[in-house]
Structure formats: C-alpha cells, structure tokens
Amino acid sequence: MRSLVIAAAVCLLPISRLAAQDPFEIVVYPAATVARGESELETHLNHTARGTSQGQTHLTFELTHGITSSWEASAYVLTAYRPGVGAEYAGWRLRSRLHAPARWNLPVDLGFSAELEAPRPAYGGASPTIELTPILEKRFGPVRLGLNANFERDLGEGEIGGTEEGWEFEPSALVAYRVSSVATIRLEYHGSFGEIAAPLAGPAQVHQFFPGVDLRLSDVATLGLSVGAGTTSAGNRLVFASRFELEL
Predict the structure, then answer these.
(1) Inter-residue contact 177 to 186 (CB < 8 Å)
(2) Could you tell me the CATH number of the domain that includes residue 155?
(3) CA-CA-CA-CA torsion for 61, 244, 128, 170, nearest 10 degrees?
(4) DSSP 3-state assignment of 131?
C-alpha cells in the first residue's frame, strides 16, 4: 500500500501548482511588439535534468503576428517528452501583448501581456489558466533591464473540474549586456511566491537563475542558450534551455 501511495504522489508531481515555473517557455518578455504586418516563429526547447519535472523535455512552437505598431498576437502549440511515456501533445496557448506608444514619453518602456493556457492535465492544473503581465523595461546603451510582474490564476471553479485558488505571483526579471552586434549575455530570474493572499514561505517558493547568451545568427535568426539553477526543492533545479527565433 505504501508503494502505491508513493507512486501516486510521483505521478502527480508534474501537475502540482506548487512548482509553478513554466518549463515550456523560459523567457522575460520585452516591452516592444512585432511590427505591424510582420511575423515571427519561435521554438523553445528545454530539458529538465533535475527537479520536479526531471527527465522531461519540452518543445514549444510559437507564431506571433503584429496586428498594429503596438499590438501583437501569438499562438502556441506545446509538446513534451516524458520518460516511460514518450513524445506527446501537451496543450495550447494564446497570447496578446500591447506596447505603450513612444509618443507617451514614459520614463520606462511599458507593455502588457494577457495569456490563456490550456495544458493537458499532466502538464498543468485541472483547468485552463489566465496570466496577466505588466512589463517594465529600460535600456542604458548596451544594457537592458526587464521586469515581468506575472499574475496567474486557474479559471475553474469549485473542487470538481477546477480550483478555488486565487491569483499567484510569479515574477521574472532580466539583466542583459550587448557585447557585440552578434552576442548578448544575460541573466534571468524566474520565481513563484504562491497566492497573493497567502504567499508561500521558505523552500515552498521557486527561485531560478538562468545565465545565458543570445547569438544573432543573421538578420532574421537569433539563437538563445541558457542553463538554469533552482535554489529550492519546490521547482526544477537544473534546466537546459534554448530558444530559436526566426523573423518571417
């Protein structure tokens, strides 16, 4: 009986809301949006070597289109590989992002993202989630500072087929330095503090740091590579992440 309980707990680990870091798209959004009429295709390939989703590989396809000079929309397809299960479809996302016009003359670049996610149960909660993200960004010559104040909530209701959990705070931040026209080094932080009304404490929180580099391969292609280290047992503790962006 004890072995059955342990096995059940292990199976539930991938869907825990406690480890709320995103294994499919490890990124700090910029304030700027894709230009009107232009499109971008991004792929995110991430592998967890140690942590709550240990052994899993996540591959995400993201297509973004600029609707106006300050508004873009994106659609995602999520896929994953789990040991013992194999490759499988993991869900979908829709995202819309706005950018404050330059004529507002704000002291910082300001953006806002709204995202709807519907993962399969093995890769999320019991219901779709919504994420609202104010974006702050400032550039000082070759230096870029970015902050995403992510607020996420499950859309289900009740104990059956949903959740009664409130809004969770999952901030991310970035410091980047452009070394040359080809290379930019960066350090990202991704965290999860739990529900705003009752924040988690100590090791139940998630804190991850991702040093990495972005390489401009051509006028239309960029490759990003990073390695993430988690400092608490609640989340993934060693992650290899990559992002390939192609301007269409």
Answers:
(1) yes
(2) 2.40.160.40
(3) 180
(4) strand
